[in-house]
Design a protein that fits this description.
This protein is mainly alpha-helical. It has six helices and two strands. The protein has a two-stranded antiparallel ribbon. The protein is rod-shaped.
Amino acid sequence: MSEPTMLYRPREAINPEAWNLPLDTIIVDATEVEDAKAEGWLEAADAVEAANVPKAAEPHVPAEPGPYDSLLDAPVADIVPLLIEMSADELVSLRAAEVTGKTRKGLLAEIDKAIEAKAA
C-alpha cells in the first residue's frame, strides 16, 4: 500500500454534502492523487498559494549606518562645538540625519544657525 496524501480544496469550491471529513480536506491513496487533483483538490503548497495566504515577511535588515550616526549618538553639548568645523553640505546632511533620528529641537536650531553662518 502506498503512502496516503492529504489534499485540500479552496473553500469556495467545497460541496458540503460530498464529504464526511473536514470540508476542505481529503486523504487519498497515492494512486488516487491525480484523479483527486482533476476534481479540483490541491496539495498543501498549491492550496496555500490558491488561498492567497501572504508569505512570511522578510526579516528587517537595519540600514547601513550613516556617516553621522555615531556623532548623533552623542549629547547635544558634545555636538555643537563640532558644527563650526563642518561644511555647509555636511551640516545639511547632519540635519537630515538628525531629523530622521532623534529630532532634537535644540540641536536642529544649532545646525540651522551654523548653516546660516556658512551662507553669510
